[in-house]
Structures are given as structure tokens and as C-alpha cells.
Amino acid sequence: MMGRLLLLLISPYLYSLLISTVALPTKPEGYHQLRPGAPFKIALFADLHFGEAESTDWGPLQDVNSTRVMSSVLDDENPDFVIYLGDVITANNVAIRNASLYWDQAVSPTRAKGIPWASVFGNHDDAAFEWPIEWFSPPGIPKIHCPVANSSCSGEEDCSFKGTQRLELMKNEIELNALSYSQFGPKELWPSVSNYVLQVFSSENPKSPVAFLYFLDSGGGSYPEVISSTQAEWFRKKALEINPDSRVPEIIFWHIPSCAYKKVAPLFGIHKPCVGSINKEKVATQEAETGIMKLLVERVSAKAVFVGHNHGLDWCCPYEKLWLCFARHTGYGGYGNWDRGARIVEITQQPFSIKSWIRMEDGSVHSEVVLSPFINRDKSM
Prior knowledge:
The chain has about 375 residues and is α/β, with parallel strands linked by helices. The chain is built from 6 helices and 13 strands. The strands form 2 sheets. The chain has a 7-stranded mixed beta sheet. Strands 4-3-2-11-12-13 form a 6-stranded mixed beta sheet. The longest helix is centred in the N-terminal third of the chain and has 20 residues, at about 60-75. The two termini are about 20 Å apart.
């Protein structure tokens, strides 16, 4: 039975308008089809930090626990799509060029269930290796386990302390996973890599988008923590190209909060109009604001921004005409002992709405909020 909403990739190299969308090839039959009238549900996995403290006994156990959280959320929610919202790995703890192996572990629960996904980079994903000072005292540097010969990163060169850069991480994800919707993004935006847009569309009318999902690389690691003015200009041009009259809602995903998040951050606790359950630290923002928030505020079609980065924050707060939301710390890697979970985003077509809530590892649900209610659109939408 044909479903209601499907997901398409919008290539940055296509020059025509809304109808110029292409589905990724080699996808399992029916993986992105929904029941008639069903919503399109997205699970956000933020700050997994796979590979953290890899040379210790407790480090690898964190990855096992993170896998358990993701599997639990996927079982409870059965989402149609997953977004890895940055800091998938802690590259500054990964001694040799095997970061892609940890990345592959991180996406394995989603892949095992046949669910498509997309990813954006965080500030730890290609951070330079930090030598632990304790390695220079007895018993010294621990034994380094080089990648196996049949892995995606093998050989003597890959057993050096050079790290794995953004382009290589993305290349390995895309080439090794038919279910990945991630992209390198336009070359003119490099070293910022994960900049691209996907479309959620109605299976009843594939030429009529229901929502656009924008992904932006907020930097960090190998270069400053910022969404550049060049990225902002790319967003402006792309939005005008594919959504010129702002009739289709837009949802935006990146890792590090913009400075606007500080402006709406609750001071004590979380009170209306904000919705959430933990407000345990100050917002750690990008190093500068170079124009992306101004563009989003000016677009009536921009409905919400979702970020990770702050493990002790999970609130959503209104800002101008859109919502600024944190995900929930999903991984056992990274700082903080708050309970783990994942933010869920649900898009419904008729009537249109964007809803969100947080699903915890123990199966409980909280912080439900309507981010965008029905908006008037003609019947072709």
C-alpha cells in the first residue's frame, strides 16, 4: 500500500526548480513508504561520542551503552528517518586513522533496522588527537590496535597519528551505506562539508513538497565553530531556488547553537513558552554570527532549528517566528550524567503540523510541543 510521505534528495548541482528532485538509488523497496495519513517521523541522535577514551576499559563500554539507547528509541518510535546531529565520534580520543570504524559502529543500529539516515558534523568529529599526559609516565603509551586489512582504512599509513578528516568520514559513510542520505555539500563551502537539503514529499503528488530539511555544518574540530557568511548565502540562494514563494515549511539542523539560543535561554528552570526537562548549563554558542539567523527569521517558511552540543539542555524556545530546539544527549560518551534519550520530530501533512517530543532510554516520553500548527496552503500542497 502506498504511503503518504516520502523523502527525496535535492542535489546542489541541479538547476531547475521544485520538480528537479531525485531519489537516491539502491534503496530497499518500500523503506520510506508510510501508511496513508501517517506522519513522517524523524529521530535525532545527538552527541554519541563513539570512540571516546578508546584506550581505557570503560571507553568501549560507553559505545555499547550508546548503541543500546539508539536501539531502544528505534524500537519504541519506529521512525521513518534518523538524523545524526553531530559529535558522532570523539576524534580527539581516537589515536589512529580508524575514526570511520567508530562512525560505522554509530550508524549500525539504524542500518540494521533498514532505516535511512543523514548526518551533520560536530566539533569533535574531526578534532585533532589529544595526547593524554598519563601516556608519558608508567606504563606509557598503550598498545595501538591498527585497522584490520579489509577495513575502509587500512595499511601502515592508517596506523599513524594523523586523524580522519571530514571529507574522508563522509566519503566512507556514503560509499559504504546505501541507506545514507548524507552529502559532501558544494565544494565552494569546504572545509565546511555537511551542507545540503532533503525533501519530504507526498507520495500522492511527488512534485509537491511537504517540507524541506536543511543540514548545515556548524564547524569545530579542524576549523572554527561557525556557520560562515558563505554558507548563509548558499542557504539564501538554495531557498530562493527551490522554495521561492516560501510556501513549503523548512526545518534546519546543525550541531553548535547559534548566538540566538542565548537570547531565549531560560534563566532558571524551564517555563512557558519554552518546553523541556533539563536546563543545567549555559548555552555554548558558535564563535560568531555571520547572517544565517537573520535569513531564517526573515523566511516565514523557516519553522524550527535543531542543534545538539550542550548535553545538559533539551529545551525548545520560540525566537521571533521560529523555534530554537536542543536535541537530547543520546550517547554515553561525552560529559554529563543526565539520562539519555532522543528528540523526535514528526511532520504531518493534512493538516500540516510539526510536533516534537523526547523519547528516553527507559521508554518514557516527555516535553511534547507543537512547533508549527496548520498553515493555510492551497489544495495542491
